Amino acid sequence: MSAEQRKKIIILMINMFIAIGSFGIIIPILPAYLASINQGGTAAGLMIAIFAGAQLIFSPIAGKWTDQFGRRKMIIYGLVGLTLSMFIFYAVNSIWLLYASRIIGGIGAALLIPAIFAYVADITTFDQRAKGNSLVSAAMSLGIVVGPGIGGFLADFGLKFPFLISALVSLSAVVFSIFVLKESETAQVTQPMDAKSETMVRKIALSVKMPYFIPLIITLVMSFGLMAYESVIGLYLDNQFNSSPKDIALMVTATGIVSVIVQLFVVDRIVRRFGEVNVLNIFISVAAIGFLLSLFASSYLIFFLISLIIFLSTSILRPVLNTLISKMAGNEQGFAMGMNNAYMSIGNVLGPTLAGMMYDVHITYPFMLGLFLLFITLMITMAWQKRSLHAKALS
Fold this sequence. Notes:
Layout: H1 3-24, H2 30-36, H3 41-69, H4 71-91, H5 95-123, H6 129-154, H7 161-180, H8 200-207, H9 213-230, H10 233-241, H11 245-265, H12 267-274, H13 276-294, H14 300-329, H15 333-361, H16 365-394
């Protein structure tokens, strides 16, 4: 990459790091906070599901706006939404207002994420795409590393104090973007699509005809299984092993460090060597094995090590799927990334909602659900790969 490319990607990484880090601050104290307002697994699942639901509704529109109005505006507006969400989360205790704050945050994420990945596509060549996406994904993981570590420390000053710091950090991302981020020079404003295709349902119907439809389905099913796991992990640690906010912060931080290292130094190399589809097969299998082992973890340390395996796999799978879809999207990067975000959001809505309810029945059921869904994902991936090879042989 040229010096100018690296400069722009670093700016995007800083944006992503601040945005994700601000949310990561609240992760280790969320179980204790929900318990303090007499809420359990269902509320924990809905916190994530409502956020993802808002993403789902707005992602197709956000993808179009990203192409039509430019990446910079959508990134800034997205960060504003996340910031407002965090301030509301700090200011209230009502569970319904907390849910409302998650809706606002979800809208912000729907605007932010497709715009950032479309920006990466604008400033990188076809061969550089995997590297650019993995760098931005590494910034996301780094935010998850630093945020919970800070949150675990700040919890000593009160359960709500981390929420305030989270809001202020997110606000700093808004200010940073306004003064530092410039529009991608290669971004092209596209003509609006047919008005009839404006709605989410029509956008998703259109995506069925796209060459990257199967990778979108893989994204959906995989997200469903992974979020079923991630949405209740803090509650599980608290319930099963009496883990403190600092214990939860330590686990999330350690798994985040692994993710950063892998995304910075491993993803690009293994994709170049094995190809995106083979990498998907390998690490979906590894994640499924991790889910299976988590059912038999007898201590915090063992569960910690198993979680490292699972998060290592997801840190590879997410940028690889983003890259695969981006490569197949051609000139419709905003639409493709919007659809990617929408399909991921469908999984993120259904997974946490069902997992939270299942957790309140039995704490191991969400992990069984995740194992089953990852197995389904693997079957879809292998069938798609086989069909693609057959089509190439006939051509």
